[in-house]
Amino acid sequence: MDFKTPLARARGLGSAKSGVEHWWAQRWTALALVPLTVWFVISVIAHIGADHTAAVAWIGNPVTAVLLTLLIAAVFHHGQLGLQVVIEDYVHDERWKLVSLFAVKGAAIVLAVAGILAVLRIATGGVTPGVGA
Amino acid sequence: MQSDNRPLSPHVQIYKPQLTSSLSILHRLTGIAMVVGTLLLVWWLIAAAAGPEAFAVVQGFVDGWFGRLLLFGWTFALLYHLGNGVRHLVWDAGWGFELTSVYASGWIVVGGSIGLTIVAWIIGYAVRGA
Q1: Of A107, A83, A87, which is closest to residue A97 (Cα–Cα)?
Q2: What is the least distance, in Å, from the CA of B25 to any CA of chain A?
Q3: Within 10 A of B105 (CB to CB), how many other CB atoms are there?
C-alpha cells in the first residue's frame, strides 16, 4: 500500500526534501576516483625521492595537471559527502551538527581551491624549479 | 531531545563481530583517515608551488619515520577503501548480495588490500633505492 499522494510520488522526495542527489554524487565521484586514485598511487610510487625540479616537471606536465585537478575536485567532493554522513550519524546536538557540517564543507572548499591553484601555478610556469636544500 | 528512562537499542559491543560489520566500520575509518591525509597532499602541492625550500621541508617530513608510518597507513587506507568501494558499487548495481558472495568479496578485499600495500611499499623502496 502506498500512502503517498500522486504529486509526492512524482516529486520523489521525502520529508527531508533531498537525499538522492547526495547518494548519486557519492557514487559518481567514487566511480571517477577509481581510475584517478590508481593513477595517483602509481605516479607517487614512481616519483618517490623526487627533488623539487622533478616534482615541478611532473606536476607541470599538462596531462598530470588535468588529472591532478580532477583528482583534487573529486577527492574533496567525495570526502565532504562522506564526512557529512558520519557527522549526521554521530553528532546529535543540532547546533554542533550545523557547526561541524559548515566547518567540513568550508575546509573542503578551501583545501580544494588551494590545491588546484598550486597545480595551476606550476602548470602555467609560475614556479622556478630548484634542487632544494 | 534528551528524555530519561527510554529504552535503548543494544550497543555495538553486544553483537558478535562479523566480517561484514567489521569491514563496514573499516570503510568509514579508512575514509576519515584519508580525509586527514588530503592535508599532506595539499601541503605537498602548495610547497611545490612555493619553492625548493618549502618543498624540502615536506620531503623531510615524509622521509622521516613518522611520515613513513603515516604514508604506510594511508596506502592501506586508500587501497582498502578503493577495493571495498568497488565492492559497494557492485552491490549498488544489484550484484553479489548472496551471503557466500558477500563473504567471498569481503575476504578478497581484505587480502587484496593488505597484499597490494606490501607490494606498493616493496616497489617504493626499490624505486627509492634505500
Answers
A1: A87
A2: 11
A3: 19
Residue B54 lies in a domain: yes
* CA–CA min distance B67, chain A (Å): 13
- Quote the CA–CA distance of B14 and A55 in Å, as a whole number: 50
Q: What is the pLDDT of residues B60-119, one digit of tens each?
A: 999 999 999 999 999 999 999 999 999 999 999 999 999 999 999 999 999 999 999 999
Which residue carries 602548495 as its cell?
B46
With the C-alpha atoms ordered A75, A77, A83, A85, is the resulting torsion angle positive or negative?
negative
By C-alpha distance, which of B31, B119, B117, B126 is closest to B71?
A: B117
Cβ distance A126 to B86 less than 8 Å, yes or no, reads: no
Cβ of A56 within 8 Å of Cβ of B28? The answer is no
Alpha carbons A132 and A46: distance in angstroms, whole number? 20
Q: Whole domain around residue B79: which residue ranges?
A: 19-128
Residue A59 C-alpha cell reads as 606536476
Q: Is position B3 within any domain?
A: no
* Integer Cα distance of A89 and A83 in angstroms: 10
Instruction: Report the alpha-carbon distance of residue B126 to residue A45 in Å, rounded.
Output: 10
Q: Give the whole-angstrom CA distance, residue B112 versus residue A3.
A: 46
pLDDT in tens, B8-63: 888 878 888 899 999 999 999 999 999 999 999 999 999 999 999 999 999 999 99
Cα separation, B75 vs A39, in Å, equals 13
Taken in order of first residue, the domains within chain A and their CATH numbers are 18-123 (1.20.1300.10)
What is the total count of domains within chain B? 1
CATH of the domain at B80: 1.20.1300.10
